[in-house]
Write a structure and sequence with these properties.
This protein is an all-alpha fold. The chain has one domain. It is built from 16 helices and no strands. The longest helix has 55 residues.
């Protein structure tokens, strides 16, 4: 993939992220205003159960799919077919696991959440697993537009169904969960059709070699993803344990807003991963990833500064005065969000080089730091303490990724973090080329 194609792919992904941001804010506003802090917290915890199961149980098949599709070592038809078979097995095991958690550990893990909400949310497990396994065929084939289309469809449909359930039918938490389930079913049908077209069909015959190699690679990426998920969401459990669902509702609003700054890093790292996996010229990889990382770092920093200045006004306008306590947590998270934005780019480069296991070491240290600091700071400082604990762990995660990336690539840390001579001219040339591409695309529109 050329630099121009990378920029176009990143632009499309970022544009998709902006649209998803706008739609997601609308969804978040409806959830918060209709359900209130307590209902919003209960919904966040119920939705966390399937997310937790999918994250722990998906075996890293998604990243492995990107890696092997990009490298072309197996036919796309058999990759798609075997991913469908794997999703059925993993989804079924996930439901059984969720039932065990609800029946025997609900009071420990989800105090204050009725079992009916958790049982209903459990139906999200198989449809989310299927989406993840099938969607990444598109990313591995570097079909960036299609990859983003399905995410946009998911966001728009969810907003529509949430509005119908909460504003039209007054169905509250149950309606919100059902809206998510219906959304995933529709989107699963869409993503399967797109992936089947890109793959040129589907071969449902089990391929033992593919399953073995994809799970070997995937388990390493999977452990890293589990640690990353825990690093992002363990604070929700601890806030609920110490302070209750109302505090979770407030904290979820602050976290939801500040994590929107990850759109930039998510767009860049999404496109970077298959590029690094497919790239055979090491020198080009050494030059390209630092450019992406430092650009993402400083662009996100500017966005964080703007959000810090406007956060109180945004929360008051969108969510009402009842959610103003979320502002302190939001502001405390900003430094960590900026640091981890570059860390995610570097982690995807490491995984694209076939070394996802290195990200595990960083993840273990980050999660341990997060848990320890949350236990110390939440009782003293409330949700702001949870936010500062996350900021500390996110910063540590970035430093770990920076260390391993520099060891693998031979680049200096200053090349990754600090602006370099010639960056501005490159940005100008890229912006001009991107403008020409947009003009050309615009002319083709009716």
């Amino acid at each position: 993939m050329s630099t121009g194609k990378f920029v176009r792919g990143t632009t499309v992904t970022f544009g998709s992220g902006v649209l998803n941001l706008l739609v997601g804010v609308g969804t978040s506003v409806i959830l918060a205003r209709v359900l209130g802090p307590e209902g919003r917290g209960i919904y966040a915890l119920a939705a966390l159960l399937p997310s937790l199961i999918v994250t722990f149980g998906n075996l890293g098949i998604g990243p492995a799919t990107v890696y092997y599709v990009a490298r072309g070592e197996f036919r796309r038809q058999e990759i798609l077919g075997n991913n469908v078979l794997l999703s059925l097995g993993v989804g079924g095991i996930g439901i059984l696991t969720g039932l065990i958690v609800i029946l025997f550990f609900r009071e420990i893990v989800f105090p204050g959440v009725l079992p009916g909400y958790l049982l209903l949310a459990l139906a999200l497990v198989p449809v989310e697993v299927f989406f993840s396994y099938v969607r990444y065929v598109l990313l591995g084939a570097q079909r960036i537009k299609e990859f983003n289309y399905v995410q946009i469809a998911q966001s728009v449909l969810f907003l529509g169904f949430i509005a119908l359930a909460l504003l039209g039918l007054k169905a509250e938490v149950t309606g919100a969960i059902l809206a998510g389930l219906i959304t995933w079913l529709v989107v699963d049908a869409l993503v399967f059709r797109l992936a089947k077209t890109v793959a040129g069909g589907i071969d449902l015959k089990p391929n033992a070699s593919y399953m073995k190699r994809t799970t070997t690679y995937g388990v390493q990426a999977h452990l890293s993803n589990i640690l990353g998920f825990l690093n992002y969401r363990v604070d929700m459990f601890l806030v609920n344990g110490f302070l209750g669902p109302v505090a979770v509702g407030l904290y979820a609003v602050g976290v939801g807003l500040v994590e929107k700054l990850w759109m930039i890093s998510q767009a860049a790292s999404t496109v970077l991963f298959p590029r690094v996996a497919a790239e055979t010229d090491e020198q080009r990889r050494r030059e390209f990833t630092p450019l992406v990382a430092r650009t993402v770092l400083w662009t996100t920093a500017l966005g964080a500064l703007a959000l810090a200045l406007l956060s109180r006004w945004i929360v008051l306008l969108l969510y009402s005065e009842a959610f103003l306590p979320a502002v302190g947590a939001l502001q405390a998270l900003l430094v960590g969000i900026v640091a981890l934005s570059a860390g995610r780019v570097l982690s995807n480069d490491i995984a694209g080089r076939g070394r996802p296991g290195l990200n595990i070491y960083t993840g273990v240290a980050a999660v341990a730091t997060n848990v320890i600091l949350n236990i110390i700071w939440i009782p003293r400082y409330g949700i702001a303490g949870a936010a500062w604990a996350s900021t500390a762990s996110y910063t540590l995660s970035f430093l770990g990724a920076l260390f391993f990336y520099c060891r693998l690539s031979g680049n200096r840390w200053t090349e990754v973090v600090l602006p370099q001579r010639g960056d501005w001219k490159l940005y100008q040339r890229t912006a001009w080329a991107l403008g020409q591409w947009v003009k050309a695309k615009t002319r083709t529109l009716p």
